[in-house]
Amino acid sequence: MAPSDSPPILGAFRRIVVKVGSSLLVDGAKGALRQAWLETLGADIARHTARGADVLVVSSGAIALGRTLLKLPKGPLELEQSQAAASVGQIALARAWSEVLGQHGIVAGQILVTLHDTEERRRYLNARNTMETLFGVRAVPVVNENDTVATDEIRYGDNDRLAARVATMVGADCLVLLSDIDGLYTAPPQKDPSATLIPVVPRISPEIEAMAGGAASELSRGGMTTKIEAGKIATTAGTTMVIASGKHDSPLSRIESGGPCTWFLTPTHPVTSRKKWIAGSLEPRGVLWLDAGAVDALRSGKSLLPAGVRKVDGAFERGDCVVVRGADGAEIGRGLVAYDAVAAVQIMGKSSKAIEAVLGYKGRNEMIHRDDLVLAAE
Ligand code: GLU
Q1: How far is the CA of 152 from the centre of ligand 1 (A)?
Q2: What are the chain's domains?
Q3: 224 and which of 42, 83, 190, 212 could share a cystine (Cβ 3.0–4.6 Å)?
């Protein structure tokens, strides 16, 4: 293995998304919450928040818990049954997380998302703002799919890909997928006893995809195939991913002490990828014309404030991509604007302190936050 392909150190990441599969949270035979185990994970999470890392949990288990509480029969559920089970189980799940994290003085926040919430820009930005705000107050967001309203056509259906999308959404540098498998093997280990665990995957190649096979456990939908798909989403956007078994107590400590797992490395940095996404994949809906002072501020790494905007063109909504130009018309960059065109016209040229008086609500101080801005080459 080349030195650059050595396993990363979990304790060095600053923002970690931990995905917990249903089969870990819920005992398969009894259908009950695995409370003692969850407490060991809670202590692991608390250690990382105590060292200053942001932690977000993507937790499955709503349907598995709810079906027990509703005494639904074993076997596959109809869509309406799983929606009903999720509505019941999500309450129990959220309470469990709230209590377990609360033991360490950590406040948990529940966020239920649908596919549209992560794929549509405005909703995406709204959800992301809530997550950022929770990080800002040192709370731990606990995310699940909103299964009660998600139908087959418009759902993620598995929390592996949802977790990857959420990880890229919050610019996490690490995604931990905890399930009932140690990691990626050279072949599905149930079928091939000579299969060996791969500790580091520098790049998800077609060979790696072939190794994933189709292993899925009883309680969770996501087999290795969806985990590899999650790996593609994560690593393309600059998030390192690790797959490890959560069938042991303190599963994060186990990764840190060199326990079995598979790391998927990323060649890119989260911010760079996010900015690539802004620069490359959106249709600009308008133009903001800046004064010279604002152009200098942007080039020195600052956000765009309303005060530096002289003219607004286009009929954009909040969260749309707009082009930013200097007085001479040269493109300075592109970014996601925090106000719609009507509001942008009202607050342009004004100090951020005046926003509330002008609009009647307290919006963001920045017209475009620097994290949402990509500068053109000078
Ligand atoms: N959202 C589902 C639940 O909470 C789980 C989906 C999955 O395990 O991937 O029950």
Answers
A1: 13
A2: 3-268 (3.40.1160.10), 278-375 (2.30.130.10)
A3: 212
